[in-house]
Amino acid sequence: xxYIWLLCPDQMESWDFFDKLLHEVQIVGTPGEGFGSQGxxxxxxxxxxxxxxxxxxxxxxxxxx
Length: 65
Prior knowledge:
alpha+beta, 3-stranded antiparallel beta sheet, 18% strand, globular
C-alpha cells in the first residue's frame, strides 16, 4: 500500500501530532494510535494523491519539523 509511516517528532503522541499538522500546516493524516497501542507516536500519510499534492505536503512538513 502506498502509505508513508513516520515517527512523531519529540516523542509527541500521535493525536497531538495530528492536531499540530491540521492546525499549523493544514495536512491531514492518520494517527498511528488508531491501529492499536503500538502505533502511538507514529503517524501515517497516504501517497495516493498527485505528485504535486505530495510535494506541497512535504514542503509544509518541513516548516514544522
